[in-house]
UniProtKB/TrEMBL annotation:
<feature type="domain" description="PPM-type phosphatase">
    <location>
        <begin position="367"/>
        <end position="596"/>
    </location>
</feature>
<feature type="compositionally biased region" description="Basic and acidic residues">
    <location>
        <begin position="179"/>
        <end position="189"/>
    </location>
</feature>
<dbReference type="Pfam" id="PF07228">
    <property type="entry name" value="SpoIIE"/>
</dbReference>
<dbReference type="GO" id="GO:0016791">
    <property type="term" value="F:phosphatase activity"/>
</dbReference>
<keyword id="KW-0378">Hydrolase</keyword>
<dbReference type="InterPro" id="IPR036890">
    <property type="entry name" value="HATPase_C_sf"/>
</dbReference>
<dbReference type="InterPro" id="IPR036457">
    <property type="entry name" value="PPM-type-like_dom_sf"/>
</dbReference>
<dbReference type="InterPro" id="IPR001932">
    <property type="entry name" value="PPM-type_phosphatase-like_dom"/>
</dbReference>
<dbReference type="InterPro" id="IPR029016">
    <property type="entry name" value="GAF-like_dom_sf"/>
</dbReference>
<feature type="region of interest" description="Disordered">
    <location>
        <begin position="162"/>
        <end position="189"/>
    </location>
</feature>
<protein>
    <submittedName>
        <fullName>Magnesium or manganese-dependent protein phosphatase</fullName>
    </submittedName>
</protein>
<dbReference type="InterPro" id="IPR052016">
    <property type="entry name" value="Bact_Sigma-Reg"/>
</dbReference>
Length: 636
């Protein structure tokens, strides 16, 4: 074969000529090998030649020969001509057989080629000679019809190979020997590769956390290795059954096969052995029929579904194949149980986490708001940080941003308790200072009870909280803000002139000292001013030994947000925290931005304000009507 890209095509043509074209009657005595066996041999030799030419860049020699089975023992049936071995060699000429050549030869049969060899060839390997090396494989092929012995002698190696496996014939023409009983291709594959396949399949199935994915993966593993089609039934919550996945070697038959399987549902059984199943009309070639088996999926003494498999044509369901399928069904059942446990726990976790954060945020007239929330735990929607924004009455709104020490489930439970307790106290009329004092008392009491019940290993749960009240001024614009910081990073106020100042004084954490007193700060957030509240996931973001808020780093970032709206400011802070270091964020991250915006008022609102004496003449002359209010703009 030439040392170029034409070598694989020339090899395929040569091998087909040898195996498919040199048959009777042109060559009397030559066997007729099945088309499938020819295709397998062509596929394998094409892969070997492609690898050899690519690695050596020199011409290769391809040799093909047929070998009959050895002569059987005297007490066994005579060898039949229904099977024959095809041996193909790809020989690379070399001046020496040095170790480097050996390593280069071994690389030819790796990756995809090795998988093909393991799946199709009976044996394969590399033979080293003084003149070069030969990569070879032996393929066991079925014959379409046994070669008949004739009175005329056929000479040559081919005839000698088949005469060795044929019993001596007496005078006169001899009839063909009956085919010897031997396992089919799937049976031999199961015997040779079954344990390796079972280990790989068990590992793949065990890694799935969705029961439908387990069913889909099982179908792709079994078809076509051990079956021509398969269907997986799984139990439902109401003790019913549903056909989860159907797989077929011919994808065009999947739809009809699903319809046929849904007609007859399997019954629950706790036996793990396969039982015969009626052949569905769309399970394969209707003219050939086939064999089908049902394997109950049982784990932990409970029935979880049924695996149906079918083989069209002559059955190849040997004992080895059936035992292998039973082992696969057991692993499927355990994988389904694991996936259902995970799904159930994930559903419970999502349900509980949804109660920890508000489902919606209140809209405040005259205040634009933005929230960024990113929990640290993988797969979690809630962590140790929490937030809320809710109305108390028509003129007062409350906001909070908190952080519980820790990231575990216990921290999440404290999150929910604190948020709901704050809402309850605020709606009972407690102001900022009174609310923090009562919440601090509750946190300290809860921590003391936990330590008394579970010991010192329980540890203390501390809470940092930024809590405030907003009272928008619908007449002059802006909003009155009363705020207190209990162990929390101080909020930053961005004025219209670009200056950034802390908006609250720092105080101790909640839950540390039961009788601590907390104090609030008040100021007016004028139109165009922004209040930034963050958790320590932002301020303590690290890059080596440096933190983001070192040397007022967060204030500098906020100063650069002049002219941006609340949502743009929140996104700028979030992106700064992520870009501060190449390492992933290792803490919960929460950002709350409040921006006072001009209040749009209608002419009716202005008239009402004049009647109440709430609008001064200067405001009327100086733009008390904002945003085209006389054209019907909405209040707020």
């Amino acid at each position: 074969m030439p040392a170029n890209e034409l070598a694989p095509a020339a090899t395929r043509k040569f091998l087909r000529a040898v195996l498919a074209e040199r048959t009777a009657p042109q060559f009397p005595g030559a066997p007729t090998i099945s088309a499938r066996s020819v295709d397998d041999a062509v596929l394998l030799v094409s892969e070997l030649v492609t690898s050899a030419v690519a690695h050596t860049g020199s011409e290769v020699e391809v040799a093909c020969r047929l070998e009959a089975d050895p002569v059987p023992a005297a007490d066994s049936e005579p060898a039949a001509a229904g099977w024959v071995d095809v041996v193909v060699e790809v020989v690379e000429q070399s001046s020496s057989g040095c170790p480097d050549d050996r390593r280069r030869a071994q690389s030819h049969v790796r990756g995809y080629a090795r998988h093909l060899m393991r799946a199709l060839a009976e044996s394969w390997g590399v033979t080293y000679r003084h003149t070069g090396k030969a990569t070879w494989f032996r393929l066991e092929c079925a014959l379409v019809a046994p070669p008949a012995a004739t009175e005329r002698s056929v000479t040559g190696p081919l005839a000698e190979a088949f005469s060795r496996g044929r019993p001596a014939a007496g005078p006169g023409p001899a009839g063909p020997a009956p085919p010897r009983e031997r396992p089919g291709r799937r049976g031999e594959w199961a015997e040779r590769e079954g344990q390796w396949f079972l280990a790989e399949a068990g590992e793949l199935l065990a890694g799935q956390l969705d029961e439908d994915m387990v069913a889909a993966l099982a179908g792709q593993l079994l078809v076509p290795r051990l079956a021509d089609w398969c269907g997986v039934w799984l139990t439902t919550d109401n003790a019913g059954l549903r056909l989860s996945r159907v797989w077929h070697v011919d994808e065009r038959r999947i739809g009809p096969l699903r319809l046929a399987l849904e007609i007859d549902r399997p019954t629950a059984a706790l036996s793990t052995t396969g039982v015969p199943w009626p052949w569905p009309r769309s399970g394969g070639d209707e003219n050939r029929g086939g064999s089908a088996l049902a394997f109950p999926l049982v784990a932990g003494g409970r029935y979880h579904g049924t695996l149906l498999i079918g083989q069209a044509g002559l059955p190849e369901l040997t004992d080895i194949v059936v035992r292998l399928l039973e082992d696969v069904a057991r692993r499927m059942a355990q994988a389904v149980v694991t996936a259902r446990h995970y799904t159930r726990q994930a559903s419970i976790s999502r349900t509980l986490q949804r109660r920890q954060l508000p489902t919606s945020l209140a809209a405040i007239p005259g205040v634009d708001t933005a929230i960024v929330y990113e929990p640290w735990g993988e797969g979690q929607t809630v962590g140790g940080d929490f937030y809320d924004l809710f109305p108390v009455n028509d003129r007062r709104w409350c906001f909070l941003l908190g952080d519980v020490s820790g990231h575990d489930v216990e921290a999440m439970s404290v999150t929910g308790m604190a948020r709901h307790l704050v809402r309850l106290l605020a709606r009972e009329g407690h102001g900022v200072e009174s609310l923090l004092n009562r919440l601090n008392h509750a946190m300290a009491e809860e921590s003391a009870e936990a330590m008394a019940l579970r010991g010192e290993q329980e540890g203390s749960r501390f809470l940092s909280l930024l809590y405030g009240e907003l009272e928008p001024d619908s007449i002059a614009g802006g909003t009155r803000c009363t705020i207190a910081s209990a162990g929390h990073p101080p909020p930053l106020r961005l004025a219209t002139d670009g200056s950034v100042t802390p908006a609250a004084n720092p105080q101790m954490l909640l839950g540390v000292e039961e009788h601590a007193e907390f104090h609030a700060d008040s100021f007016t957030l004028a139109p165009g001013e922004t209040l930034l509240c963050v958790t320590d996931g932002v301020t303590e973001r690290r890059n080596g030994t440096r933190q983001l808020d070192d040397d007022d780093g967060l204030a500098e970032v906020l100063h650069g947000c002049m002219g941006l709206g609340a949502k743009a400011v929140a996104e700028r802070i979030r992106r700064t925290a992520h870009d501060f270091s190449t390492e992933p964020i290792d803490d919960d991250l929460a950002i709350l931005v409040l921006e006072a915006v001009p209040v749009l008022r209608t002419a009716g609102a202005v008239a009402t304000a004049l009647q109440d004496g709430g609008l001064r003449d200067g405001e009327l002359r100086g733009g008390g009507l904002r945003g085209g209010g006389l054209r019907g703009g909405r209040t707020g």
